[in-house]
Amino acid sequence: MNTSADRPYLDCAYKLQEYAGQPRRKRSEGKATWPGRKQVYRGVGAEGRLVGDTLTLEGEVCDGEPLLQPVMRNGQSLISLRPLSAIREYAARGLAQLPEALRSLEPAPGYEVRIAEPLRALARSVDDRQPLS
Q1: CA 121 to CA 52: how far, in whole Å?
Q2: Is 36 exposed, middle or buried, given 0-12, 13-18 or 19+ CB atoms closer than 10 A?
């Protein structure tokens, strides 16, 4: 993918995380990424409110609900379309789970996202294999 400065058709950045089965990462200051295939687990507290997410490697298991699910394979949809009423209910449940401070348009404390140790270890391994030049 490519864009040019005078005709920026895509307002996005593509950062390769794996190539030919090998984890990769970008390490530029302020642009560093976590390597490999990942999963995100969402934590919900006793009151039913979101308490934070954990980013880990695909295949690792953490407390919480896994958020990343395949929706396409070989050009075929793996999920059935839901009616608009079901989508509305899903969105309302998600909004109700937000901590009170995150329900307003006012500045709020950040939402905690933890990086699991297996992902940190993979990043160290990639860094050891490809030192900065």
Answers
A1: 21
A2: buried
Give the CATH number of domain 18-129; options: 3.20.140.10, 2.40.70.10, 3.40.50.2000, 3.30.470.20. 3.20.140.10
CA 76 to chain centre: 23
List strand residue ranges (DSSP E) for the chain, in order: 18-19, 22-23, 38-44, 50-57, 65-66, 72-73, 76-77, 113-115
* Spans of all domains in the chain: 18-129
Distance of CA 56 to the CA centre of its chain: 9
pLDDT tens digits, one per residue of 10-22:
666 778 899 999 9
Q: Taking phi first (over 0 means left), then psi (-120 to 50 degrees means alpha), and beta for anything else, what does residue 127 get?
A: alpha
pTM, full prediction:
0.82
Confidence label for 35 from pLDDT (cuts 50, 70 and 90): very high
Measured from the Cβ of residue 34, the count of other Cβ atoms closer than 10 Å reads 19
Q: Pairing relation of β-strands 18-19 and 22-23?
A: antiparallel
Q: Which residues neighbour 104 within 8 Å (Cβ) at sequence distance 6 or greater?
A: none
